[in-house]
Amino acid sequence: MTTDTIEFRQSNPWLETAKGEKRGYIQPAKLTELWFHTGTICNLRCPFCLEGSKPGDTRIQALKLDDVRPFIEEALDLGVEQFSFTGGEPFVVKDFIKILQLALTHRPCLVLTNGTEPLFNRFADVVPLLDLPHPVRFRISIDYPDEQRHDAGRGPGNFRRAWATMKRLHDAGFTVSVARQRDKDEDVNAADEQFRDLMEAHGIPRDRTIVSFPDFLTPGSTGHAPEITESCMTTYHTEETRADFMCNYSKMVLKKNGRMRVYACTLVDDDERYDLGGTLSDSMNARIVLTHHRCFSCFAYGASCSEK
Amino acid sequence: MENTVKVIDVVWHTDAIYELLLERNGQAFVPGDCVALYAADGQASRPYSFASGADDPDLRFLIRRMDGGEVSPHLASLKTGADVKVSPPFGWFRPGQAGDNAPAVFIATGTGIAPFLSYLRTFSSRPPLMCLYGVRERKDAVAAAFLREHCDTRLAVSRETAPDAYHGRITDLLPELRLAPEIHYYLCGLDAMIDQVTDWLEEQGIDITHIHRECFFNAEV
User: Fold this and answer.
1) If you measure CA to CA, which chain B residue comes closest to A44?
2) Closest to A91 (Cβ–Cβ): which among B92, B192, B194?
């Protein structure tokens, strides 16, 4: 009589795909860009928002100047080259101008904004930012070149308001760019060209940066993106392109449940497994496993939250 | 984080507009702040501006019940002592608070008058130069008497005539506005009014840093 020995292998879906292959990962090399999530509070309530942001939302809490200060100091020690801010809508946050003032005394900044009332109302505080040692650029969300389609998600009149804000920022001397949504199977160049026509029509140079994003789904969604294996990362990517993944060179800081935390990137704050600790130093050695469904957008289309 | 507070009362001003009174529980805010008030499921929420003064003993919100809405019909149905989930205060609109006591003009439609009521209940000794207040029907002008006690108020009623009001849209009254570069203009109401008034003020040479806006959308449903 023989007895077969059966080895039960415990799979770990965090580290292995459904087929048991090792997942791809990024081993961060540096910190050149630090993102701050200013909070999921927003003046708009867009049904597609990847952050689930809306008026009064506190999933990610609004930042205060004292929350940010130690991370700016730590990031400077680690060689950071730029601070970037996303939300929610950063200009809803009461301390945001003070936070920007602090950041701009040290490094250039990028601010993602919907370009509506919160920024409009604080324009008098925004213009003096031009006098600080480093420049601030603004990226305005304009989902589609079609006004009705944009306003269907963001509220009536907001297409017009966002363009008006962009023009005012440009006229004041700030560099502006556009964040748009990317349709499946779209002709990227043709879509960008429509935006460039709109830039020209609004008196903004056609050569401003346009960043496009696929539908990232709302927080907590699982998505149905293909899984990324170690083999994928060597077959379809090179050392050079792996270095372009955001999680190689950036982190995002946010406030949850009253605690400041460091996350792997701007797109994975709905998954606690990407919480890398309470300080930037703690977070730097963590290997970033590409398990989140949004990781596939970086894998397939290139990491694009930054404007490298 | 969100709190739960008790309802003191629901006071109806018309068949659609009501005032929700909540216990204060020490909540600090400044005029122009909003909170998100939640529906019974604790998920759906809508932002509402404070209508009460910053030092008043209770919290007041002026609300239009939207048929088929997710939140306003629920809030309208609440009885004294019921619980309401409330977000922390937030806001980017600060009526009367730009500059160093700079002269101000208020322009509101409908329940967009709420943040101006909060201002007047907080800073009664610093009224605006004037207030334009637009409503559909005369009965909707629930704050008209209070406003007239405190400042030069021009009422516009769009859908009917009334002895004490201009018959037409609030934007018809814009030529009556006092215009000066030192004045700050505060606009609160539906998006179409906000856009029209902004355009008009800019055409008159008012710098955009002196135009402050709080925009309501018809987004309850």
Assistant:
1) B217
2) B92
Q: From chain B, pick out residues whose CB is under 8 angstroms from the CB of A41.
A: 90
The predicted pLDDT at position A51 comes to 87
Which residues span the domain enclosing B118?
Answer: 104-216
pLDDT at B107 > cutoff 90: yes
What single DSSP character describes residue A226? P
| Tokens at A54, concatenated | 């809306």
Cα A102 to Cα A106: distance, rounded to the nearest angstrom:
7
Question: Phi and psi of B59, rounded to 5°?
Answer: -105, 135
Neighbours of A178 (CB within 10 A): 25
Q: Specify whether B141 is located in the same domain as B210.
A: yes
B204: burial class by Cβ within 10 Å (0-12, 13-18, 19+)? exposed
Residue B221 CB-density burial (10 A; 0-12 exposed, 13-18 middle, 19+ buried): exposed
Residues of A in contact with B43 (CB under 8 A): none
| Residue A22 token pair | 């090792």
Report yes or no on B94 lying in a domain.
no
**A56, B93: Cβ pair inside 8 Å?**
no
Cα torsion B121, B118, B31, B2 to 10°: value is: 120
CATH topology (fold) of A25-301:
TIM Barrel (3.20.20)
Burial of B176 (0-12, 13-18, 19+ CB in 10 A): exposed
pTM of the predicted structure, to 2 decimals: 0.87
A162 Cβ under 8 Å from any chain B Cβ: no
- Residue B99 within a domain: no
Q: What stretch of H or E contains B216?
A: strand B211-216
For tokens 């929350």, name the residue. A67
What is this model's ipTM? 0.80
| CATH number of domain containing B47 | 2.40.30.10
- Binned at pLDDT 50, 70 and 90, residue B85 comes out as very high
- Phi and psi (nearest 5°) for B181? -65, -20
Helix (H, G, I), strand (E, B) or coil at A140: strand
Confidence tier at A225 by pLDDT (50, 70, 90): confident
CA distances from A145 to A43, A59, A192, A300, B172 (A): 22, 31, 9, 24, 33
Q: Which residue of A has its CA nearest to B209?
A: A124
- Give me the total of CB pairs closer than 8 Å, taking one residue from chain A and one from chain B: 71
> Which helix (DSSP H) or strand (DSSP E) does residue B118 occupy?
helix B114-122
Domain map of chain A by residue range?
25-301
Say yes or no: B129 and B192 in one domain.
yes
Residue A218 has pLDDT above 80, yes or no: no
Alpha helices (H) along B123-185: 144-150
Does the CA dihedral B212-B179-B154-B59 come out positive or negative? positive
- Residue A142 structure tokens: 């304009």
B96 part of a folded domain:
no
Listed by number, the residues of chain B in 123-182 with a beta carbon closer than 8 Å to a beta carbon of chain A are none
Indicate the DSSP class of residue A22: B
**Contact residues on chain A for B93, CB-CB shorter than 8 A:** 117, 121
Whether residue B165 lies inside any domain: the answer is: yes
